[in-house]
Amino acid sequence: MTSERLVEEQVERLLSGQGSEVSVCDVGMDQSKPAALRKNITYIVGAVIFNEKEEVLMVQEAKPDCYKQWYLPAGRVEVGESLEEAVRREVKEEAGFDCQPITMLLIQEQGPQWIRFIFLARISGGSLKSLDAADQESLQAAWWDRQTPLPLRGRDILRLIEHGLKYRRNPWHPLTLPVDLSCRHVVQRMVLVFVGAEDHIWILLVRASVPHLPTAAAVKTHAVTWAANMVVQDAMPASYYDHDVTTLGVFGLQHNGRQHGRTDGVCFNTLVALVPDRAQRDEDGLKAELPPAGRPPPIENPRYVWFQVENPDLREKLLEKTKNTSLLPIHSLY
């Protein structure tokens, strides 16, 4: 099989939400430590669950610092758990229901040390937790019509509920659940694209016996998606400040979590756009609009190479994703 076809297969796998083993990390390993729950990382899961009336499942907190306030079922991932196992456990403990995750709705992060995964889920069994069953996990659960006044633990959940409603009514990205593949660090693997004149499209690759998509370790001083900036700085330092590096969203993520300290990492498979900063400034500090760039900026580091996508099917898929951003969103809370 030609190297071009191998590259196309790598990209197609990620586009379809599948994963692949993280066998190498190209940038940032010297600034990253293996992920270990309860030591250097915290993962939070949250569940957005609606009934047939579009009321949302809420739980009343038992913790002293937010006693009797209401929130979505949510909590920390425990050592040895997958993300889906954690969602099912939290919903059972706090709300009394068994649930089945449908898709991730949103990923929020404050660097690799704190990441929250919000799932849309459906009830598959159990019964609503009442005050009679109050314990340290929660006091009770209830269906909220989103109109009746309710003392909320945090207003951040209103946005998450809206995300869930929007997706339920009009799904804008494919169903996306974690792929069970282990990863030692928190890393970003990227399909990093440059769209030039006449919608020609290039993908940045790392040269190797088999060229591959760049993977970079997240560093705790920055957002997880800063890893893409590190790759661009490494590949084309002279062009870096003339371009915007934007992670458009997540095709899928890989997590296993069964071996503490060895498989607690996450690999985010992402689409990244490298876009010329058209509003640069001239020597007088005035904005100078630049003409559209026909080709990607030159590579300065021989480890990298631009690969022009000739396959019309793959080109159309990538163009559609870059224009409509029909991907799982990842938001930095920095």
Automatic annotation (TrEMBL):
<dbReference type="InterPro" id="IPR020476">
    <property type="entry name" value="Nudix_hydrolase"/>
</dbReference>
<keyword id="KW-0479">Metal-binding</keyword>
<keyword id="KW-0460">Magnesium</keyword>
<dbReference type="InterPro" id="IPR000086">
    <property type="entry name" value="NUDIX_hydrolase_dom"/>
</dbReference>
<dbReference type="Pfam" id="PF00293">
    <property type="entry name" value="NUDIX"/>
</dbReference>
<protein>
    <recommendedName>
        <fullName>Nudix hydrolase domain-containing protein</fullName>
    </recommendedName>
</protein>
<dbReference type="GO" id="GO:0044715">
    <property type="term" value="F:8-oxo-dGDP phosphatase activity"/>
</dbReference>
<keyword id="KW-0378">Hydrolase</keyword>
<dbReference type="InterPro" id="IPR020084">
    <property type="entry name" value="NUDIX_hydrolase_CS"/>
</dbReference>
<feature type="domain" description="Nudix hydrolase">
    <location>
        <begin position="40"/>
        <end position="165"/>
    </location>
</feature>
<comment type="similarity">
    <text>Belongs to the Nudix hydrolase family.</text>
</comment>
<dbReference type="InterPro" id="IPR042970">
    <property type="entry name" value="NUDT18_NUDIX"/>
</dbReference>
<dbReference type="InterPro" id="IPR015797">
    <property type="entry name" value="NUDIX_hydrolase-like_dom_sf"/>
</dbReference>
<keyword id="KW-0464">Manganese</keyword>
<dbReference type="GO" id="GO:0044716">
    <property type="term" value="F:8-oxo-GDP phosphatase activity"/>
</dbReference>
<dbReference type="GO" id="GO:0046872">
    <property type="term" value="F:metal ion binding"/>
</dbReference>
